[in-house]
Design brief:
Shape: globular
Strand order of the largest sheet: 1-4-5-8
Strand content: 5-15%
Radius of gyration: 22 Å
Number of helices: 11
Distance between the termini: 46 Å
Structural class: alpha+beta
Oligomer: single chain
CATH topology of the largest domain: Butyryl-CoA Dehydrogenase, subunit A, domain 3
Number of strands: 8
CATH class of the largest domain: Mainly Alpha
Number of domains: 3
CATH architecture of the largest domain: Up-down Bundle
Amino acid sequence: MDFGLSAAEQDFAEEVRAFLRAHPPETFPEDGTDAGYGSGAHSRAFTQALGDRGWLSMSWPREHGGQARPMMYQLVLLEELAAAGAPFGPLPGCLQVADSIIRHGSETLQREILPQVARGDATFWQGYSEPDAGSDLLALKTHARLDGDHWVLDGRKIWSSHAGIATYGTVLARTDPASTRNRGLSMLMVDNRLPGMDIRPIRSLTGQVYHYEIFMDGVRVPRDWVMGKPGEGFGQLLKGLDTDRFWGRFYKAPFLRRILGLLVEYVNTPVEGGTPPVRDPVVRRRLAHAATEIAALRALFYRAAWLIERGRPATGEVSAAKVMADELGQRVLSLGMELLGPYGVLRAGSRWARLHGEIEHQYQTSWGHTLAGGTSEIQRTTIAVRALGLPAEPRAKA
């Protein structure tokens, strides 16, 4: 396989860079905080500017208003945005949900929501986890029952990213209580503006809000706002988790490469009356090792992308890439905190903060990444079972 860009893809990468030079990301207002995954904060205006270029729907089929460009163009776009520190926040999730609507959505969902995504007007939250159903999602208690032309939805979701600033949510609910745990589940698209929706913020270590808790009390969802057929939610969940882990972490490599560039610049800064840190061979060696790991992470994600684009199983590769992305992020940012020393704990806004306080912010957010989207322990189990063919549980002794 060749992960190099074709001439057309290179031209597109330069087109994105030219756009970023003409529209500096820092000039756009922010509507949501940066959670440290590499997609930056959320700016509606910036996302809409991407929509104006036709980039949000460029890989969709032409019958849905797209350009039928290969998946690689989406990867190029996200890499360039992450490398520039652009505020594209929930955009990868929007692309993921749009793909699900194209595959499984009713004509109503395709007609009403896809154009909003293409314009950059729609963002989404994911309603999977619950207070008593995290790693064991099949223990969920959220349920929906049919009442005429509507589903009546009741339940509670937690740790839903972007929910307070989003327009819609994809909610996994039990629609057939008589079925077994992995059957009778359905994926519903829910409008945040519906009566009965109560979205409450969860404040993070940084003091900012990225996650939310959602209470749904008798929310009436149109009958045709179910994804696929009722009862098909479990299969969509499994595919959704794989794609979520891929699209939620793919741009971690260019993001970490940008962070590494800031640290390299910092250690090369002359020190009055002293020696710059770059003169320390241990510092140079640790930075070089980080660069090596970042390059390996990028290759791992492109391997997963190559499989996904061809419709091949990629669960093991995606889980491996997620584990490496999250744990490498923690290592690189821990190194950054060491190099900044006492300045590393100062937040943005402090007169003494170095690198605009970004290392402190990203360091604190990084520690939740090995939990979000499936813990690293769960991912290693997935790799063992799905990629290596090992038993899911130790065999009982004879």
